[in-house]
Amino acid sequence: MSAARTLEETGLFPSLTPEERAELEARFEPVRFRAGEEIFYEAGPEEHLYVVVSGTVEVLKSVSGLRRQRLAVMEAPTLIGEMGLLTEPRAAASVLARTPVEARRIAHAEFLRLLEGGSTAAYKVVYRIGELLAERMARTNEKLSAVISDLDEARLTRDAGVFRDRLADEWF
């Protein structure tokens, strides 16, 4: 599949009118990343909202300062940098290009100017970001629930083994 050349081709913003899409297209700039290149560093500045139009990115989080845990692998089309747009502009995780990536980006300051100016297009993008974050949170909740269930099962198995061993030691 060839890379999307426009925001419309990504399908990420179906509620935008042609005029609204043109307003955003004029402000987004193309950018490319090589496979292995970091787009964001955890706790580093997150100064742009990116629409990934081709390629695959990986989201990594530092764990205990000892290693990086993969949180997600996302294929185009997708958004990255959306959390920094809505909160403090520091990356909550690192984002790495797994493959060559083509994206369109807009500086947070420019996007905030659109919002402050009452841009309907910008409001629709924020609404779409909310939808995407809710979808991602639902997937995270499912994964977390499965991990907790696995831990509970492991604890029950371990506790049963400890009980069996204590019973055998004390009764025999």
Automatic annotation (TrEMBL):
Pfam families recorded: cNMP_binding
Molecular-function annotations in GO: DNA-binding transcription factor activity
Cellular component per GO, a single term: cytosol
InterPro entries, alphabetized: cNMP-bd_dom, cNMP-bd_dom_sf, Env_Response_Regulators, RmlC-like_jellyroll
Domain Cyclic nucleotide-binding: 12-115
Matching SMART domains: cNMP
Recorded superkingdom: Bacteria
PROSITE patterns: CNMP_BINDING_3
The protein, known as: Cyclic nucleotide-binding domain-containing protein
UniProt source species: Rubrobacter taiwanensis
Lineage, uppermost ranks: Bacteria, Bacillati, Actinomycetota, Rubrobacteria, Rubrobacterales
